[in-house]
């Protein structure tokens, strides 16, 4: 089921030689709340040499899509970048610090625990 399947439903059937219709029922489809947002790094551990690439991956254990992902540095909610699909995004800048991801389902948001990134 998708959210747009919410509505009123009934069935129609033939009983002996006569068509009959059931009472209508209301079906409401709800989103599954976001949970289990986690951030991982490649290379593992979040340590990278200046000039090399670091890829941050954000995953969600439970949630109803479509989901959007954004990456944030330190204590700022100004996004470093965003992606409409789950996956990886490059780490922006050469600063060591804490990075985290935020996931939105359009109604609610959840965030990962911060990850320490060290640029050597």
From TrEMBL:
Residue ranges constituting the Ig-like domain according to the UniProt record: 33-118
SUPFAM superfamilies hit by this protein: Immunoglobulin
Superkingdom of origin organism: Eukaryota
Name recorded for this polypeptide: FCRL2 protein
């Amino acid at each position: 089921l998708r959210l747009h399947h919410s509505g009123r439903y009934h069935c129609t059937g033939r009983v002996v030689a006569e068509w009959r219709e059931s009472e209508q029922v209301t079906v409401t489809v709800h989103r599954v709340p976001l949970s289990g947002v986690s951030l991982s790094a490649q290379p593992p551990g979040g340590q990278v040499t200046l000039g090399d690439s670091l890829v941050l991956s954000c995953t969600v254990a439970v949630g109803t899509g479509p989901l959007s992902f954004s990456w944030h540095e330190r204590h700022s909610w100004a996004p470093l970048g965003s992606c409409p699909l789950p996956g990886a995004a490059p780490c922006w800048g050469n600063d060591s610090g804490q990075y985290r991801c935020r996931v939105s389902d359009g109604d609610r948001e959840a965030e990962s625990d911060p990850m320490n990134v060290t640029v050597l």
